[in-house]
Specification:
With 288 residues, the chain is of the alpha+beta class. The protein contains 13 helices and seven strands. It is 44% helix and 14% strand. The strands form two sheets. Strands 1-5-4-3-2 form a five-stranded antiparallel β-sheet. Strands 6-7 form a two-stranded antiparallel ribbon. Helix 5 packs antiparallel against helix 10. The chain starts with a strand and ends in a 10-residue tail after the last helix.
Length: 288
């Protein structure tokens, strides 16, 4: 079982992509490859950089799902390989030295085009949480209530449970996952999406239980292609105050809109990764 696809890529580093806080279902292995699942597709991800550019080379995806062979279209879209990140980085780098330095630190970041439902569940769980625990919560939720998607080695991967399944559960049912107050959020949000469909997100995202402005911005950026979104969390507040001298949510929003405009989401990821990885204080395992 399985299919393998190969892509020639630029502006690509799987460590930057999978460890910048935008997704939670991938793990780095001892050989530098990654294993995980996107939507209903477990896969192994290998990247071989070229001799003269560590951010260019060959991306190989070993898809271990039962999905029909689409020639790699799913993964091409997932990794946003049709977008010229070099051009985006050049535009942003011309804005100021701070974003220029952040880009140099996270050259290989690409914004994954994630499944809407997966992003919605993931970022509701991410609230006031750290990355190891978010991953454990999502895996536990999927193993108990999701459908089996495939195996890699001895590990079986499971899909995020569907909205109707979550809607049918109780807080007591979810107790083994240790979601805390987020359990009710997932149940009520599952019921809303089961009734109205994912198109409900287009105009009612913040009406969903457990979705505030920051979570909404993450979902919009990572699954709805709203690239002017600029999620503001503890790390972003820190970088804006430390490197730009700006405090206050409204002031940060105004600055991001004026300075980064339609590329706000890309800028946010470079800044987020930069401050989280280089900060002398705090826990870099904290999520958005």
């Amino acid at each position: 079982m399985g299919k393998e696809y190969s892509f020639t890529v630029r502006d690509f580093d799987p460590v930057h992509i999978f460890e910048c806080g935008q997704c939670f279902r991938w793990e780095r292995r001892d050989d530098g490859s990654f294993a995980g699942i996107a939507g209903e597709r477990p896969a192994e991800i290998y990247f071989e950089p070229s001799a003269d550019d560590r951010y260019a080379g060959t991306l190989r995806v070993a898809d271990r799902s039962n999905a029909p062979d689409d020639g790699g279209a799913f993964w091409y879209d997932y990794f946003d390989l049709g977008r010229d990140y070099g051009a985006i980085k050049k535009i942003l780098a011309d804005r100021d030295e701070t974003i220029r330095e952040a880009i140099r630190f996270g050259e290989g970041i690409r914004l994954l085009r994630q499944d809407r439902w997966e992003a919605l569940v993931s970022f509701i769980i991410s609230q006031n949480n750290n990355i190891p625990r978010i991953k454990k919560n999502i895996d536990g939720l999927s193993e108990l209530f999701g459908e089996e998607a495939g195996t890699i080695g001895e590990k079986t991967y499971y899909c995020i449970p569907k909205p109707g399944k979550l809607a049918s559960l109780t807080v007591e049912d979810l107790a083994p996952v240790r979601l805390g107050y987020r359990a009710r959020y997932l149940i009520e949000t599952g019921a809303s999406i089961a009734e109205n469909g994912l198109c409900y997100l287009d105009s009612h995202l913040c009406d969903l239980c457990g979705v505030g402005p920051k979570v909404a911005n993450c979902i919009s950026l990572f699954s709805m292609e709203k690239y002017d979104s600029f999620p503001i969390d503890t790390w972003v507040k820190q970088v804006m105050e430390k490197l730009y001298g700006i405090t206050g949510k409204k002031e940060i929003e105004a600055f991001a809109e004026e300075t980064f405009g339609e590329y706000g989401g890309f800028a946010q990821q470079y800044l987020f990764y930069y401050i989280r990885e280089t900060s002398a204080c705090g826990d870099k395992h904290l999520a958005h």
